[in-house]
Amino acid sequence: MHGIDRNTITDAVIASFDAAQDGRMKEVLGALVRHLHAFAREVELRPEEWRTGIAFLTRAAAITDAGRNEFVLTSDILGLTSLTDLLQSVPGATERSVLGPFHAEGSPELPVGADLARDNTGERVLVRGRVLDLEGRPVRNATIDFWQTNAEGLYWQQDPSQQSDNLRFRMALADDGVYAFTTVRPAPYTVPYDGPVGALLRAGGRHAWRPAHFHFRVLAQGFAPLTTEVFPDDDRYIDEDAVFGVRASLAVPFVKCDSASEAAKYSLPSPFSRVEFDFRMSAAR
Amino acid sequence: MHGIDRNTITDAVIASFDAAQDGRMKEVLGALVRHLHAFAREVELRPEEWRTGIAFLTRAAAITDAGRNEFVLTSDILGLTSLTDLLQSVPGATERSVLGPFHAEGSPELPVGADLARDNTGERVLVRGRVLDLEGRPVRNATIDFWQTNAEGLYWQQDPSQQSDNLRFRMALADDGVYAFTTVRPAPYTVPYDGPVGALLRAGGRHAWRPAHFHFRVLAQGFAPLTTEVFPDDDRYIDEDAVFGVRASLAVPFVKCDSASEAAKYSLPSPFSRVEFDFRMSAAR
Q1: Which parts of chain B fold into alpha helices (H)?
Q2: Which residue ranges in chain B fall short of pLDDT 70?
Q3: Residue of chain A with shortest Cα separation from B241
Q4: What gap in Å lies between CA B183 and CA B185, rounded to an integer?
Q5: Which of A23, A80, A110, A146 has the fewest CB atoms within 10 Å of its CB?
């Protein structure tokens, strides 16, 4: 008796990968098939719905290029990117958040304490803290890669009116693990919604907004690279990030300060806002 | 307390679609998110594996065009296309199988009993049967859309040496529901394996072969359109179709015949092969 029926197809597909050399690949593909089929069975997926899914992917393909990946965005708005980050969490270490599409190598090097705001308008902010290990000791020779939007919610890559490399830097830290810089408060912005993801968000009654955030990538020899975001805890979208990147530990107060000595030390107007955030790095795996 | 953690993210993503107008869409998206997250949790999906998945989709996007859809092929080789067909099964009706990429409108019209083989080489086959309803009564005014490969496993669209429209037809049936035609035996062929699906098949220890088949699309007023395939039950790949399209009821004998009268009636050499297959149509939904 040849052939497949609805009771045997899932096992048949999983068994088709039996000869895979890579055991982990076999495990992941087997689970993917099992869950994908369970989804189709549970909702009794209709042919026209299958076609809608294929059309979604085909439209995502058409809008994807070197500068935009609609598949990443799909993963983001379905929470899969954030879930993958969360599954990497190490107790006691800083929580991870999405990398996003605006990180790029080659940021200008700035010294600890530098001013990033320059001619940017907006609320002035002092950001400072330390890079620590899980025991609270300073991590030596860490570097911080940092990027943020301006006060209009735009990265320099999106906005010809900004100077190249605006509001991003790379900072090599000393043995005390201390970092500090002054900048402007970033603003919420929308993920791209002119493609199939946008259509899905609209049909799903959702918006495309992300809360404002500072984006950090912290690297140090012997430690797992850490990509994360720090959010103002009073942001309008703090509880409804379109890509589910907010973690309780990453939402922090932008504290109003009127310390004249600190303002003078960092050439800030008074009052200014202060953000204190320490990174806790876990060991490299 | 703002933010998402690994225990709350799945419910948060599902809840984000609460305002969707379309209840069915909400149901399908909710189930998709739940199963997708369950997959990631079960295998503890690693960031590099997530990137592998994104790279797969991005490569699939790059190779997809008007004539080729790597997302459909991905669905095919993971059995999702066939599962969707199987979920549509109506007891007593002919089982469905994948449409595939080689169906096109505009087939030449042929009368019942016509010869499709013409100058094609290969084993000559008489195919005949009836289009019936679930009670076994002839379906009136049915049409059959038919397409197959030649004896080298190629459709005319793939092979400049074949005449346009080779080995395909549209046939309008009389009130008795009888169809018949003569042709050549089709051959196994591979699904495209020069893209990411091919790489996945190779990494998974799988081949890209489909067993030979006749492809039918049967239409009649008042009945659900039926797309299916009929396979020679002795095909080398009958138990290992790369797209899981074989059903026990669709694998049929190619019976060797030496009836001189039948050979004469259909202008066939003797012996020839005979395939008898009745279609059972379910009511339109």
Answers
A1: 9-16, 23-43, 47-63, 70-77, 80-87, 196-203, 260-265
A2: 1
A3: A3
A4: 7
A5: A23
Best interface-test mutation with B: which of A36, A88, A96 has the largest number of B CBs within 10 A?
A36
Only one residue has tokens 């598949």, namely A71
Tell how strand B143-148 and strand B214-219 pair up.
antiparallel
d(CA B199, CA B58): 14
Q: Please report the ipTM that was assigned to this predicted complex.
A: 0.94
Cβ neighbours of A40 in B, within 8 Å: 80, 83-84, 87
Measured from the Cβ of residue A79, the count of other Cβ atoms closer than 10 Å reads 25
Question: Torsions phi, psi of B157, nearest 5?
Answer: -65, -20
Amino acid at A114: A
Is B58 in Cβ contact with A240 (below 8 Å)?
Answer: no
Give the Cα separation of A223 and B157 in Å (integer): 56
- The tokens describing B190, both together, are 């591979």
With CB atoms and an 8 Å threshold, state whether A79 touches B10. yes
Nearest to B205 among A17, A45, A89 (CB): A17
Gap from B37 CA to chain A (nearest CA, Å): 7
Instruction: Name chain A contacts of B4, Cβ cutoff 8 Å.
Output: 79, 82, 86, 241, 244-247
With 0-12 / 13-18 / 19 or more C-beta atoms within 10 angstroms meaning exposed / middle / buried, residue A281 is: buried
Distance between CA atoms of residues B108 and A56, nearest Å: 33
Q: Which domains does chain B have, with CATH numbers?
A: 1-45 (no CATH), 81-281 (2.60.130.10)
pLDDT tens per residue, range A38-84: 999 999 999 999 999 999 999 999 999 988 999 999 999 999 999 99
Among candidates A51, A12, A41, A28, which has minimal Cα distance to B79? A12
The tokens describing B79, both together, are: 């059995």
> Which pLDDT belongs to residue B1?
55
- Using the beta-carbon criterion (under 8 Å), do B239 and A2 form an inter-chain contact? yes
